[in-house]
Amino acid sequence: xxxxxxxxxxxxxxxxxxxxxxxxxxxxxxxxxxxxxxxxxxxxxxxxxxxxxxxxxxxxxxxxxxxxxxxxxxxxxxxxxxxxxxxxxxxxxxxxxxxxxxxxxxxxxxxxxxxxxxx
Amino acid sequence: xxxxxxxxxxxxxxxxxxxxxxxxxxxxxxxxxxxxxxxxxxxxxxxxxxxxxxxxxxxxxxxxxxxxxxxxxxxxxxxxxxxxxxxxxxxxxxxxxxxxxxxxxxxxxxxxxxxxxxxxxxxxxxxxxxxxxxxxxxxxxxxxxxxxxxxxxxxxxxxxxxxxxxxxxxxxxxxxxxxxxxxxxxxxxxxxxxxxxxxxxxxxxxxxxxxxxxxxxxxxxxxxxxxxxxxxxxxxxxxxxxxxxxxxxxxxxxxxxxxxxxxxxxxxxxxxxxxxxxxxxxxxxxxxxxxxxxxxxxxxxxxxxxxxxxxxxxxxxxxxxxxxxxxxxxxxxxxxxxxxxxxxxxxxxxxxxxxxxxxxxxxxxxxxxxxxxxxxxxxxxxxxxxxxxxxxxxxxxxxxxxxxxxxxxxxxxxxxxxxxxxxxxxxxxxxxxxxxxxxxxxxxxxxxxxxxxxxxxxxxxxxxxxxxxxxxxxxxxxxxxxxxxxxxxxxxxxxxxxxxxxxxxxxxxxxxxxxxxxxxxxxxxxxxxxxxxxxxxxxxxxxxxxxxxxxxxxxxxxxxxxxxxxxxxxxxxxxxxxxxxxxxxxxxxxxxxxxxxxxxxxxxxxxxxx
Lengths: 119, 610
Fold this sequence. Notes:
Chain A has one helix at 107-118, and strands at 16-22, 33-42, 46-51, 60-66, 74-85, 93-99. Chain A is mainly beta. Chain A is globular, with a radius of gyration of 14 Å.
């Protein structure tokens, strides 16, 4: 998508992201599966990450983001919009998340922080 | 009690005293109700709820001639249906049983309201009650069928495991084997044998051939002795060239892993090379595959002869903890009885002996149902059998009844014929499939190797998923029942009915308040207090669905539910969700969300690795 058509500015911020790939089942004592990866860029409406796992497009996953100079992890819900293998197979996958306006998530804090960063 | 509500008998004498005929009617009704409650008991508070219909029954008995014929009046049918639908109901079922309780209360309320009507029409209510009961019973039957299939799958897998181990152990007992081959036989070969049994059955030609291949393999690994003639060597050459192909054919468990397949044939080929070169080959008597001792069960238990699937029982396995359960499956081969609750969910499985023991100790009582109120009315009129009825009704009615019985027998025979035809068709299809495989083999082709493991994997996957779903349901319901039984609620348990409270952030269960800022305007609809990550059980469709709340978008008023991998399973607005909850079609199974803990763990792992 051309940059001018984007609703929000993409910022090349590298931050640590935790993505819940598989959650524990009901009544299960076993842990789920969480991927740890880095953002390639972030915007008010989403984020692009580089990770070792392929993601299912359309999946709605819980995300924890640790932005630079922020103590608190921000908890968000995101929908996988695309996922592509990186040029070199050993470099894993790149995926784009659209952040969802989930009540009781940290989406408002995310917006505020991103607005500050844009200026 | 009924007398208090009886209409005044006559315009003369004591206006509060019922006339003789009405007195007899009321006594009949009183006796019928007493018999009904004793012989077809329901758990409280349902029993008391239905007792509220006595005044209406009294009114109808003295005003509507139809009421005097057991089973004819809509009120008889309403009570028959409600008892049938509620025979398995227990307070301990919690939200699972809430829907039925509400239906019953509503039906009673509507019927009681008819007391004030001059000529009450209960036909409409009767139809609604029957339709709701039919729907509930059908849903429970579908659930029970799933339970049965899961158990059958488990039993088949256990039987396949036992038979496969028996076959391999029998061969290992007869011959010594190189350790690496013994390892292979007890590993991939053993797993493949189970798959062959599951796919084709113990009576199949495929199983016989796999057994033969096992025998041939072990025989081919025995060293050539000096006294062996050239025939033995020639035979061995032939076997050696044929065996890898046969082994590959039956090695179903690793057909998708070419490396494992090659490893197996390499091991066998290496051992054959040593035998043919007459090199010393290390042979040992391999330990057998451990097999759980098969319990010998007495399936010919006289006490259980009359017990059939579909019957309801009140079983008191633990003192003071009676369970209303339905026998959903009786397996003669293994001597197992499988019981489910009103929702069709597995409660327990018992051997014939265990259940007979409970029967002997008086810990089991049969819960009768089906036209219960009508039968009680007949009983109170002195009719306890069809013979009593025939005597009372005369020849014409007897002929009509016999004609109806004949019609039912014919219908039964027709259904049986259809069933047999379907079974015959299935057998023919199986035979055709076997023939197809044999033909492919004769023509020197591999019989669709790529498909077989895929199909088996699919079968296994489905069985695993069904077992996992059943386990999750069982576990979730157990936890819910524990909570509802008054045990200390978990720290993150929140009343489902609580509305209008503020949600907490995702992953905040049991932890400190999330830093989440609140977003969106408050929706017009009442807000459900569901945490992100809350697991819900939906049973408003044909198949029960477990799903987790992924997003609650307040602005658009939508709740999105996903499976464990985040795939969207359901989307509802708050009104729809509330309606489903109110009708008992949705259960909140778990409010735990462990995402925050998972992140802490992931962080620690990253730090350790760093």
